Amino acid sequence: RNLMALMGLSGLDQRMPSQLSGGQRQRVALARALAPEPKLLLLDEPFAALDARLRKDLREWLRRLHDRVGLTTLLVTHDQEEAFELSDRFLLINRGRIEQEGSPKQIFNQPATEHVATFVGETNRVDGRAESGWVKWGPLKFKAQDHIKDQTPVSVFFRPIDVYVSSQPEDGAVPGTIRSSRFFGALEEFRIVLDGDIEVIAQVPKGVAQQSHFENGKNVYVLITFAHMFPRSNVPSKIPHLKG
Fold it and tell me: What is the pLDDT of residue 208?
């Protein structure tokens, strides 16, 4: 009964399973798992069968429960949003091997391999060659990392959220034109063509896009604020290369 109260299930103990909602059934399952007072809780895709709103609510509830009970939990999931929201430590596994381990911020901001960079979140990819400490791609250029020697083939990755878009000229920004757009609620995604018919994909907060009047055909200025660079892999990419 203490667990039921902790799970927000008080007063439901006489109900049949068919009389419980999907979220209530998930909480019953967690209560049963916690009843023996385990030292480690294993959750394998615990919210996979639930709708998006319920998954979000249960993730927030599980995080609060975890902090209150203080139980070590190992969560297995393919849902990246779920992993980032719930985890203190993040292990990304590729073909049965740990590709990278770290905090969610480290995994997202400092990917250790090309696979991590392409797997976690959306990304733009550019293939090029390091020359005189830079990798040039149309009007854009990226600073080569110290360990990458000249003439080394490299792949550069930058996320759409790391593409800064402005309606006014700014230092270091290059001109472009919005070719197409997609609306994702909190974000708007723009496909922007630069000189040489080179395209980049940018994601901009909805409010910024509206205030700046970003729309198809509008001339804008683009600056890449953050990028990752790796010596080019021989493994074919699973994501399409950007035009150019």
Answer: 94
Residue 243 has what pLDDT?
44
- Nearest Cα neighbor of 180 from 243, 239, 117 is 243
Distance CA 113, CA 213 (A): 37
CA 230 to the chain's CA centroid = 19
Measured distance CA(75)–CA(177) in Å, rounded: 43
Based on its alpha-carbon atoms, the radius of gyration of the chain, rounded to whole angstroms, reads 23
| Amino acid making up residue 240 | P
Q: Is the pTM of this model over 0.90?
A: no
Distance CA 244, CA 194 (A): 10
* Closest C-alpha among 195, 204, 199 to residue 225: 204
Dihedral-angle region of residue 228 (phi above 0 means left; psi in -120 to 50 means alpha; beta otherwise): beta
Structure tokens that stand for 180 in this block: 């197409």
How many CB atoms sit inside 10 A of residue 10's CB?
11
Give backbone dihedrals phi and psi of 42, rounded to 5 degrees, phi first. Answer: -105, 125
Q: Residues 216, 179: contact at Cβ < 8 Å?
A: yes
pLDDT at 233: 57
**Cβ(62)–Cβ(87) under 8 Å?**
no
Confidence class of residue 244 from pLDDT cuts 50, 70 and 90?
Answer: very low
